[in-house]
Amino acid sequence: MNGRRVWFVLMASANFLVAGAVRLPRGEWVVHPAATAAAVAENEELRIASVGPAVTEIVFALGLERSVVAVDSASTYPRAARQKAQVGYFRAISAEGVLSRRPNLILLSADAGPAHAIEQLRSTGIPTVVLPAVREAGAIPTLVRQIGDWTGHTGAAAALAQQLANRIQQLRERANSVTMRPRVLVVFAPTSGTVLVGGEESVPAQLVRLAGGENAASSSVEMAPLSAEGVLQAAPDIIVATEHTLSVLDGGDGLWQLPGLSRTPAGRTRKLFVAPDVGVLSLGPTFVRCAAALYEVLHAGAQSSRCGEEHGRDA
């Protein structure tokens, strides 16, 4: 279906329309103005406000770059997303900023906020979709299909979702079959004064496990502050760092100067894997691709130490 001819059909049945909420075709409930958002008029150009790094990544992957009129400040991937108007951090968006871009479809991650801003967007009658939370890699293909449903790009979404599902299954099988699991420490620095490591229940820990590694920061639950004592206890064989982390730490030299890191097995060999922030911190297509790239480094002797953009784009 062409992006310029999109009908958002809200079927008047118990499965789709209940008191201002809409159930997507696969059964998940989303916040949405029920009666007033029946359709984006035929021939009207699709104008998408995309909020949430994984949401934006998927929208671009479906070929909708030209339809995106606004993104959140954390949606920096792919690189083309950085050229779009920004509406604030995805957990603290400005409703006025979103509306100033005149979208006719607003796609929000489950973590978007604040609640009053989302309610303000809903009250306008513009189709406002709060997509269900994705908490594990196996749910990524479903999110892709849902975004495809809402944008009218169901064919492209189905193809991408199947590709991702196959890749995730293959990675799980490979990870389950490995006999040695290198210890991996994921380091993220939102600012130069704040350095965190990925705990056992964090998204970065899922990346490590899907790649057939052992999360070295298993003593923490979520993202936790880095300490020299904790790093030495973790004894990582390899460090995974995001591109933003290296930028705020002045590159690899700054990374290895973090407390205790140079005294670990990874520090002695300077074993480092670099990935886009969205490939480490968000559950989307790049997360899957970076897990595959990390597996190759951990278990297949791959020399590449970076997970960049596909199709020849710069990371």
Distance between the termini: 30 Å
Report the mean per-residue pLDDT as an integer: 86
Q: Work out the strand percent.
A: 15-25%
Total number of helices: 12
What is the succession of H and E elements? Answer: EEEEHEHEHEHHEEHEEHEHHHEHH
- Give a quick account of the main beta sheet: strands, pairing sense, barrel closure: 6 strands, mixed
Q: What are the low-pLDDT stretches, counting only 5+ consecutive residues below 50? A: 1-42, 311-315
The assigned structural class equals alpha/beta
C-alpha-based Rg, rounded: 20 Å
Number of strands: 13
Shape: globular
Could you estimate the helical fraction of the residues in percent?
25-40%
Task: Give keywords.
315 residues, alpha/beta, 4-stranded parallel beta sheet, globular
Would you write up a description of this structure?
The protein is of the alpha/beta class. 36% of the residues lie in helices and 16% in strands. It has twelve helices and 13 strands. Strands 8, 9, 10, 11, 12 and 13 form a six-stranded mixed beta sheet that branches. A four-stranded parallel beta sheet has the order 5-4-6-7, with helices on both faces. Strands 1-2-3 form a three-stranded antiparallel beta sheet, with no helix packed on it. The chain is globular. The model is unreliable at 1-42 and 311-315 (pLDDT under 50).
